[in-house]
Structures are given as structure tokens and as C-alpha cells.
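Sorry, any thoughts here?
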Amino acid sequence: MPQTATTAQIKQVSLKDVAGGLAQPVATIKLEPEELKERYGIEFQESKDDLDDLVAALVRAPSGRMFALVRHRHQPNPGTDILTDEHSPDLREDLADAVRYLGLSRADVKWVHPVARKFTLPWVRRPNVAFMRPVQPDAKLSVIVGDQPLPRSELTRKLWNYIKKNGLQDKKKRTHINADDTLKPVFNGKSQVSMFEMSKLVSGHIR
């Protein structure tokens, strides 16, 4: 089973240790560098290219593939670009590797390179109607996200806002969430869970 950022610590590489080559954009995700740092503990470094000043982080997936997360300072639209090797023979698999490792959802992705899209990854082929359909939180989850039906994407956003507001992401193990008295019933009594486990537990509190 491929490792993801929810089951392994992110492996970063310093910008100065890479000679170049990670220049091919394969996708743009909605998450800003600050959100990626909050969610995964990824540290971004200041740099620049021919276009603009930027912040970037280099990540090595368990497969050995490296990809860059880049946000140009004056980019008009929000989001972070995923860049891979400009000489790569398989952009589709490069993108799939990054998506698996970071545990990205359909809702996280704004744009995909046409060559990567050509081979059709299931999570970018078409809108996920089930993901957009409103779900009903139970009484335990409603304390956090409200008691009205809402799409899973909005439910996830509200849950993460609660986690950030209350400082519940573990300071050392960034892929784990600590439960306060309100969140613990959603976690079925557990005091700490991984992000991956949290998704499964939350699914048990909606219908």
C-alpha cells in the first residue's frame, strides 16, 4: 500500500541540494503554503525564478520521486503549483505519486496538466457527485460543524477550522490530531488519531 502524508512524516529536501529540473507544472492545488505547513508541517523557503519571487518546498515521496510545491508571490489566483521533472516520461504517474503522498482529495485540486489528465486519474475525471451531496452530521459532530446538512467538502473545512482554532494538530507529529473534550466523542473516545484515521471516524458520524 503506498505511503501517504497521513501515515509517514513528510521527507523534505533543501532547495540548495537540488541542481534543478523540477520545472514542469503538473497541477495546481487550492491549498496555500501556510495551509500546507499547518496540515503537514512542510517548511517553505524563499527563492526566485525568471518570473517572480516565490516560496518553494521540495518533497521526496517514498517511491524516490521528488516534486516541488511552489507559490509565486504575485500570482493573481490563490493556490500552490506542483512541479515535477521537466524531462519526466510519465507526468501522470508523477502527479499520482504526489497526490497519494499528500493525501489530496478532488476538492483540493484546481487544475491538472492536459497530458496528466489525458490518462485520466479517477479523482480528476469528473465531479464526484457523492462528495458534493449534502450529508447530515450526527449529534456529536454537529457540535463542531453545525446541525444542518452540508457537502463533505464544507464539513471538512469546518472541522479543520475547529482544529486550527483550538491548536489541536500535534506540535511534533503534524500528521496527528489531539482531541479536546468536544472532539473526543467524534474520535470514539480516542485522545489522538492520525489524519487518515480521523477521516474514517468522521465518516461514522454522518448519514
